[in-house]
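help with this.
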Amino acid sequence: MTGHIRARGKGAWGLKFDVRSDTGERKTRYATVHGGKREAQRKLTELLDKANKGTLLEPSKETLADYLERWLRDWAAINVSPKTGERYGQLLRSYVSRHVGAVRLQKLGGAHLGEAIRPSYDALTRVASRPRRGPSAMFIAYCIRRLPSQANGD
């Protein structure tokens, strides 16, 4: 696979590289790196390595809310009891999708999730400390921790 770097402006570099699709046809991908030329070279090498290993993700506009609904429909509906799946849905829609559901899945990072969920998590902790007023904070944390492992098919 080949790729090259070109200057796009002050401190910005354009990367252009080829990847092979599942059908064997060539696709050209583009990326922009801000910083020095060495950083751009490192990023290009990293992207080409991921493309060779087959771990480079296709660009997607799927949001976290879309993914959570798909996860509930495809995984939770099969692997947990109906009542548990219903409860997971209530919790995820109320406490996760409401705050960060519009964020694109590929842009979402751990720090982003932590910042966005912190107000809800703090409120949950207060609510959970009162008997019979809602789900426990530990249960919400468990649900959130389960998502990344299920996304990878574990």
Summary: The longest strand covers residues 12-20.
